[in-house]
Design brief:
Strand content: under 5%
Oligomer: single chain
Distance between the termini: 74 Å
Shape: flat
Helix content: 25-40%
Strand order of the largest sheet: 1-2
Order of helices and strands: HEEHH
Number of strands: 2
Number of helices: 3
């Protein structure tokens, strides 16, 4: 274990270190975890997508929040909102490819 100074900060381990600061061969000081022991026992934290999925699946009257948002998006598209129409088409048919035309010309430089 790392020893603690009186001010609460850990003492830097200098035993068995190379010049670049890495531990040398046969080091036992720098090994924090035993074989088979996880360095992150609680696993990865919740991502924003997981949290958003939980919030959108909460029931609201007869539907979920997700269904309510989709209904609103469809009604906006029916009223002519171009952003809503584009969003629906992008999500259902996939985004259309953009083609960029490039022309490369080579100029030769002659030095005499």
């Amino acid at each position: 274990m790392t020893e603690i100074q009186k001010n609460g900060s850990p003492i830097k381990q200098t035993a068995n270190r190379r010049k670049n600061g890495q531990f040398g061969n046969g080091n036992t000081i720098g090994k924090r975890f035993q074989p088979g022991e996880s360095g992150n026992p609680n696993g990865r934290g919740n991502s924003a997508k997981d949290i958003l999925d939980k919030l959108l699946d909460i029931p609201k009257k007869n539907t979920t929040r997700r269904e309510g948002i989709i209904d609103k998006l469809i009604s906006m598209a029916e009223n002519g909102n171009l952003n809503a129409i584009k969003e629906i088409l992008d999500r259902t048919d996939g985004r259309s490819r953009e083609y960029i035309e490039q022309r490369i010309t080579r100029d030769e430089v002659v030095i005499e």
